[in-house]
Amino acid sequence: MNERCVEVQLRLAHESGAVLHTNEEVVAIDPDSSSVTVTTPARSYQADNVVLSTGPWIRDLAASEHAEQLTVTRQVVFWFDAADLASFTTDTIPYVMWIARRDEDYIGLFPMPPGGTPAVKIVSEQFLETTDPSSVDRTVSQTEIDTFYDLHVAPKFSGVRRDCVRAEVCLYVNTADDHFLIDSDPRSDRITLMSPCSGHGFKHSTAQAGMPSSSSSFMTLSRAEHLQPGPDGIVSSNLLIYSFLQGFRSRSMLRNLRKSWYVE
Ligand SMILES: Cc1cc2nc3c(=O)[nH]c(=O)nc-3n(C[C@H](O)[C@H](O)[C@H](O)COP(=O)(O)OP(=O)(O)OC[C@H]3O[C@@H](n4cnc5c(N)ncnc54)[C@H](O)[C@@H]3O)c2cc1C
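Output (structure tokens, whole complex):
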């Protein structure tokens, strides 16, 4: 599904006049007062403005003071068989979130979209262990699958079988307050850093692309300095209210919901 969205966005960009250069690794981005030089092994490009959206690799090319504020975490996505797959389609079950006290006990169950993997997609999230995209372990062991099933799936969802038909590793980029990133690079306003940070942010990518960093200060890295927890430990800010209004769900919202609504 994501790949199809990317293909469509690339096609629309091309039809609007964009020139696409694929499979060309950017190895350096050097701004000066009048332009930015983008270097690849093939050649150098001069650009008036550069948008850097290289996902978990964004830290390699961003200025170090911004790179240091971002972490990358390994996540695992599982697809399990079910006794009755028809009861897990988009027509029969909504997206289910299981909000527990700890981040790592959070569970999301996705209904099967038409044409998707014929199995029930279930994820958790972890933010305790950080990783590096160049060395991350992208294999999912049987032990990892069994542990996940025993701990999270079997006690919570009936009808989901132990047979894991697919498991994939994916990476989240994490900011201090778990929201998306749209910020100028400290080296130059001509360089904009953008990261949806996760698949959730990816869904908003077309809207994000229309937001220049100058008009979205609530997405900059420095915004986290203004977030103050209240006496109950709940962060309350215009950012969260704005997020609700815009229909954004970010991980910080999830954490606050957990603090507000968790019932023993
Ligand atoms: C199977 C799967 C299931 C997932 N499920 C979920 C989910 O349920 N929930 C969720 O929140 N997230 C999920 N994710 C994660 C989500 O898809 C990603 O977090 C999101 O797509 C990241 O988008 P991005 O644009 O920031 O990065 P990417 O999609 O990683 O794009 C970055 C691009 O930059 C390119 N690039 C990097 N460095 C350079 C360079 N130096 N020069 C040129 N190009 C470069 C890369 O090749 C890549 O094409 C899943 C991921 C996978 C693979």
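The helical segments are 2-15, 58-61, 64-67, 142-153, 199-202, 205-209, 238-246, 251-261.
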